[in-house]
Structure formats: C-alpha cells, structure tokens
Fold this protein.
Amino acid sequence: MDALTEWSAAASAATRPTFLTEVRAAGALHGAEPVCVHRTPLLMPFAEERRWRTLVAQMHTLLKKLRRALVADLHLGPQSLAARIGIPADAIEWAAIDPGFPNVAPLSRLDAYVEAGVPRFLELNAESPAGMGYASALAPIFAADAAAAAFPHLRFLDPVPAVVATVQALAAIWAKARRQGPKDSLLAPRRRFSIAIVDLPGVATAPEFDLLAAAFRRAGHPTVVATPDTLSFEGDRLRAGDLAVDVVFRRLLVCDLRARRSECAALLDAYRAGRVCMVNSLRTALLHNKAIFALLHDPSFPLSDRERRYVRRHVPFTARVDDAARERVRRDPENWVLKPAEGHGGKGVVLGWAVSRREWEQAVDEAEGCIVQARVRPSHGPFFDARDGAVHSRVIDVGPFLARGRLAGFLCRVAEGELANVSAGGASQVPVFSYGSA
C-alpha cells in the first residue's frame, strides 16, 4: 500500500467531523470557502524532496539566465527582448526602474505536474505567489490527524519563515542603497521596518493576507493590509493611513496595476522615487510572462548542452503563437494546451483534448498574445474528501516555492480535472509532508 492510499484509508476509518471547521478557524479561506476540503496531504519520501531541491536549483540557474537577458536590453524599449516576446510597453518601462536589489522574482513558485515519475515545469508564477500562508496554516491541522500516526517522521517545510527572511534581507539591501544621509527616516538602522500588504479590494485570497500579516508582526514588523487606492505619497514617504510604509509586500499583479493606474498612482510614484521597497518588484513582468519558457526552447537562446537536456526533460515544449505554431498544433488538439501569456488563475486556458475540434481550431486561429505548450499528463492519487467522506482519485499539481532561488516548501493542489487552479474552481490545496529517513 502506498503512502497516499494508507493515509486515505486511515482517514476513512477515523472520522473527523470538525475538519472543515478547523480549516476555517485557521484562516485558510478562499473567499468565504475553505481552501482545503481534502483530509489527505501529499506525502513525499525524503529522497524525493532532495530531488526537488536539486531540480529547483537547476531551474533557478536557467531563470537567472533569462533574467539577465531580459534586463540587459530594456533600454531598447520596443526593440528589447522583452518587447519581442510580447511584454507590454508600460510594463517594460516599469521593469527598467532599478528596484534596489538584483533579484527579479525573489519569491516565486513553479507549477509542475509529475509525468511518469518526472517533474515537468509548466510555468512560473513570478509575482507574489499565493498559497504560502495557506500551506503554513494547514500543516498543523494535518499533523494532528489520526492518520498521521502511521507516519512517525513527518516533516513539513514551512514557506512562511522564508518569506519573512526574504523580505528582511531585501529591505536591508534596498535601504543601504536608498537612504539619503543619517537623518533620513527611511528604514533607519536598528528600527523594525513597516510593511503594507497591497492588493485590490475584494480579492478571494484576502484571508491569506491576514495570515502573512500575522507572521510579519510576530517578527516585529508593524504590518497593515491595504488597497492601492488607500495609499498616499507626498514626495517623501508612502503612507497607509497613519503608517509610514517602508516595504510593500505586493500581491497586486502588474496586469491589474496597468489596468488601474489612477488607483495605483501613489504606489507607482513612491516606487519611481525609490522611497519604498517593493517585494516583488515591478520587474516580475519580465519573468511572469509564460513566453519565457518558449525562450528556453528557442535554439538561438544561449544554453549549454547540459541545460538543453534539462529543458527537454523538465520543461514541456512551449512556443509563442505565430503562423508556424498554428500550423504545428491546429490539427493535433490532443497534445497541446493554449494559454494567454499574461494570464493567471486558469483564465483563458484551452485544453485541446477537452474541447471539440472546431472549438480548438477557432481558439488557435484567434489567439493573440498566447503560447502553446505540449500536453503533460499529470499523476493522480487517492484523496479523502471531507465533504462526502469518500476517497476519490484526484489530479496532483505540485508547485515548489522559491525564496531567493532555494526551495521554500510546496503548494499542492488536487483537482477533479486537469485545470488544477483554486481560483478557477474544482481544486483544493493540501500541505506537503516529507517522510522516511533523511
């Protein structure tokens, strides 16, 4: 019996009617609903976690190459590499602003399926990825489950301490470069800096902001959750109400900022003036675009033979939609996915094998600003659903979190179908535990 089957069987035998109530009480909510409805976590042998660490480090090396190439010619504007892969002009303009530290996506997440035992990276969430706070809140609930007794050496890699440490480290680097003399109050030495977690009002992931804010406060940092329209800037300090803000922990997506410039004017002005540290910075638009994986498969992009072997094994073939790509995929819907290059939350994704031939051909013919990616067949596992008290086979989506290029835990989503996205519906987040001997 494998680990998932064993845990799910134990969960079936030991009722826990309070499970969903406990998830709610922990603050693990997506909107008003629990982000987790399954009582089975993803269980990963410790040796497998070590393999993920290695794969993530290798992928980070490739991402650094992409970052250097995309940043190097930003000054060329419409002729830059960023423009050639479809990044909008205003996002390029913001990316050209020096954020005060070299990292483009210090907090990020890779989304992956494991196909026939091989991790395959589908895309990079280079903004400030959701799920870190949820994972941390869910882990104690699962560790206390009766089913956990069969796994005496469970270990959980909590991503939240890495989030706090990353923000602290980047703020220190930024302050050293930005402080204007000893009388400048901006992140003054020996002062605990203040943080504003910023996103649009009414987003479904807002409960996670409270979890992260609590972690920042435990670390000694005054922290508020704010929306961009409530911020003010008068040339010296960004303010959220009465709080002078040193660091913006940005959950606001660049595409939302582009669409709501007037609401975000204070935030943009403070960032341009170098008077607020933003994590992640606005350079994330360079890596958040799904077309970066097409660059990895471009023969003209400079990679070593070893790196090209890694890409072939772990990154499904990806191409920007142009006439050549249309010709390649139009008649073969069973093996391709169409995705908006700037999309998120599963919006606009078309699975070729899940629609009619006519719908697929129309979607490919009309696609603009999209990529096509070779189909990856995900692994499945048995998960106990707390809603109906039954075990079901679910698709497993594993997303390693990166903090400054190192593995910082996992987001695991389990889903009934192959669009494993909580925002899109039909998916549930569960924590990931490693087990066995180190």
